[in-house]
Amino acid sequence: MIKAGIIGATGYAGGELVRLLLGHKEVEIVWYGSRSYVDEKYAHVYRNMFDIVDATCLDDNLQELARQVDVIFTATPQGYLASILTEEILSQVKIIDLSADYRIKDVATYEKWYGITHKSPQFIEEAVYGLCEINRDKMQGVRLVANPGCYTTCSILTTYPFVKEGLIDHHTLIVDAKSGTSGAGRGAKVQNLFCEVNENMKAYGVATHRHTPEIEEQLGYACGEDVTISFTPHLVPMNRGILVTAYASLKKVAYPDGHVDYPTEDMLLDVYHKYYDKEYFVRVLEAGMTPETKWVEGSNFVDVCLKVDPRTHRVILMGALDNLVKGAAGQAVQNMNLLFGFKEQEGLELVPMFP
Ligand SMILES: NC(=O)C1=CN([C@@H]2O[C@H](COP(=O)(O)OP(=O)(O)OC[C@H]3O[C@@H](n4cnc5c(N)ncnc54)[C@H](OP(=O)(O)O)[C@@H]3O)[C@@H](O)[C@H]2O)C=CC1
Ligand SMILES: CC(=O)N[C@@H](CCC(=O)OP(=O)(O)O)C(=O)O
């Protein structure tokens, strides 16, 4: 049994971590960290925890926490961990950071897109980008995991096999994404109020969203070239869920008889299967199905599927996940399982909720 502490346990991602870790056989949560609710009962902040969690919220004393636990989850705003992380802390404990502080390897890129100065760039190099399906082999002996963003997890897993295999022209890649409002966190601003979001839909962060360089960097590693995409997120009136629809022009391939032509839908589906059949959390849907946020809600699954448009020679790649689970807390638990040698699915075999 290991001990875990959560800084930011009172946020949406932290709250989801609590829910998942309470169902994990190998972990005990000993620190419910907060900024605004110190000394208040955690179950008074989140009443779904009434009669389940008796603990009182503690502060965000990372030094003290590092002495007490085996793993710390930081589910805090961008810049928080970077501003307080030290070698002394990292030498005592493993940290899984749900923010973007250590996701992007180039510090200038991080500072440009996030508009903040990185306070501890010396730890960026050693941090592993915790997209388990792609970086599982890099988790041995790791001290710091950069847990990927919700849009990014969905966008990368949906497109990665085709970028890696060189089957699409990545210069033409357009990622259109939609998110439920919990993606903005509990401390969200006026534009996320019910009467602003309900019966409404809008694009935001157009051509400027901070997940753009994260997706580009990871897809760049996949194909060994610089990748530049168009990424447009939208806010939709749901609690949870990310839906990605990505468009790219297909590249011609050589067929066994020597002729060169565009790949067929079946060939591309085989590629999804080649990459994901062994992945418990990625479900490749049958041809003709389209991923829906409702079918993955509350679970750590990512559903993917595709359609070839023979008129345009483009492929339309589609993916859906729950932003608070595979897009945040579930992925963080999956990373913890890898770091500590637990079964990767432990605590995460959650059947999606419906309706
Ligand atoms: N929501 C989502 O779907 C996803 C979120 N993330 C990332 O996870 C992190 C948390 O997001 P989310 O849960 O949505 O945000 P919330 O706004 O819901 O929660 C933020 C949490 O951080 C705490 N906090 C805020 N400021 C400070 C501070 N200065 N010092 C210590 N603690 C602080 C808050 O404490 P208190 O409430 O007690 O004030 C709260 O517990 C962010 O980096 C976000 O980008 C990543 C993927 C998906
Ligand atoms: C709906 C909504 O507002 N979503 C957030 C993404 C939340 C998230 O995943 O944040 P990080 O990955 O950057 O930590 C946004 O667009 O900023």
TrEMBL record:
Pathway: Amino-acid biosynthesis; L-arginine biosynthesis; N(2)-acetyl-L-ornithine from L-glutamate: step 3/4. It holds the Pfam family Semialdhyde_dhC_1. SMART domains: Semialdhyde_dh (SM00859). Signal peptide: none annotated. The active site is at C150. Keywords: Amino-acid biosynthesis, Arginine biosynthesis, Cytoplasm, NADP, Oxidoreductase. HAMAP family: ArgC_type1. This is N-acetyl-gamma-glutamyl-phosphate reductase.
